[in-house]
Structures are given as structure tokens and as C-alpha cells.
Write a structure and sequence with these properties.
Helix content: 25-40%
Number of strands: 6
Structural class: alpha/beta
Shape: globular
Largest sheet: 6 strands, mixed
Strand content: 15-25%
């Protein structure tokens, strides 16, 4: 129990220390990823705070009530590192600890795919899917890029 409290405190402190990184603009060239959704997801923009809530398991449904299916890149991906730090406000390791704590409540982290192509295929095949890919990735018509505000 004490270990869980300590991990929670460390994650909260890390999150507070990195919160200033959440102010980066979506058009900022330092953001080396694109956020993509299934074409059936309504909307063209997503607030950065909501994106973080989705990938941290706080928000589970889109505005129309449909389930969200989030997908991450591999834990070793530099794009995932950038996404975790810039969109979620914490390093990959802190996100991993966040999900370890949530497992006790029955929550499951986003599934992980090893490549941009795998993320795109998953997002295209799942109605409420959201993911991210590298800036260099070609975004086909089977998915849609959205703007993060």
C-alpha cells in the first residue's frame, strides 16, 4: 500500500513538473506526431487536455456516446516518447506507472502497436479509434488527421 502511495506521489510530482509542456501549439514543429481518428469519429479538433484524458483512461466515450479505442506506439518508440511528454505531460515511464495503478480498478491501457502502419490499420478498423503516428507517416483516406488544440 505504501509503495502505491509513493508511486502516485512521484507521478503527480513528475506531472506537475512537466505541465508547462502542455502549452505547445499544435502547429509547433517540435510536435513530431499526427493524431488520427477513425473517419466515423465526429469533429476535426480535439483539446489537448481531452486527448490526455483519453490516453490516461479518464475519458472512455466520444461526445456521441460511442466507445473510444485508443492505440499507442511501442514503449520504445521515440514518437511515443514525444507524444507522452507533449500530449500527456509526463514521460513514458510515468505513464506506465499510471496504468499500473489503474490495473487494480480493472482499467486497461491503450493497446500498443509497433509501427505507424499498424496504428493506421487499427484506427481504420475500429469505429471509435484514436491514435498517433510520426509526422513522416502518410495518412490514407481510411483514417482522418485531427488538430490538437
Amino acid at each position: 500500500m505504501l509503495k502505491k502511495v509513493f508511486i502516485g506521489l512521484v507521478i503527480n510530482l513528475v506531472g506537475l513538473g512537466l505541465a508547462s509542456g502542455l502549452d505547445a501549439s499544435a502547429s509547433d514543429v517540435s510536435v513530431p506526431f499526427k493524431v488520427i481518428v477513425n473517419p466515423k469519429v465526429v469533429g476535426r479538433r480535439l483539446p489537448r487536455a481531452v486527448l490526455a484524458e483519453i490516453f490516461l483512461g479518464t475519458v472512455e466515450r466520444w461526445g456521441d456516446g460511442s466507445l473510444i479505442a485508443a492505440v499507442d506506439l511501442s514503449i520504445t518508440s521515440p514518437v511515443r516518447q514525444a507524444f507522452s511528454e507533449q500530449a500527456l505531460g509526463m514521460p513514458v515511464e510515468a505513464v506506465r506507472f499510471h496504468w499500473l495503478r489503474k490495473l487494480d480498478s480493472g482499467k486497461r491501457p491503450p493497446i500498443s502497436k509497433s509501427s505507424d502502419e499498424d496504428v493506421i490499420a487499427f484506427v481504420a478498423s475500429e469505429r471509435g479509434a484514436v491514435g498517433y503516428v510520426s509526422l513522416a507517416a502518410h495518412v490514407p483516406e481510411t483514417v482522418r488527421e485531427i488538430t490538437v488544440q
